[in-house]
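Annex B.
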Amino acid sequence: MLAAAFTSVAGSSQWFDQSFVTYSNKAKEDRLGVLPETLLEHGAVSRQTVYEMARGAKAVAQADYAVGISGIAGPGGGSESKPVGTVWFGFAFPGGSCEAMRRFDGNRESVRAQAVAFALERLAGLIENGGDAV
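Putative competence-damage inducible protein: predicted structure tokens.
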């Protein structure tokens, strides 16, 4: 969904190169280099995992900026510690990275749409501020 938002903009081929859909843990490991130990210890929906996802995507794509997103959009899959609507975001940029967690309300599509909107807003802020976390 995030890649679709990027490529819906005319001229995006000038700055958007590629994306990775790594829905399974195996894909996160194989495509982005997320460590199996990270997934076992912290789970897919965690600060540690999105950190590794964003850093891995940036390295694999040889990009200046990368975003990793992992969450529980529902309707099932939530827990007491990670309820439905929990989404972790990892951002890798020149000179560093940062992570953020948000809890969104609504149905599956609403949670996903809010996650894309947040990622776009945060990434735009990072680019505007030269990579300084916002």
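The domain at 21-128 is CATH 3.90.950.20 (Maf protein). The longest helix spans residues 108-128. Further annotation is deferred to the next reporting cycle.
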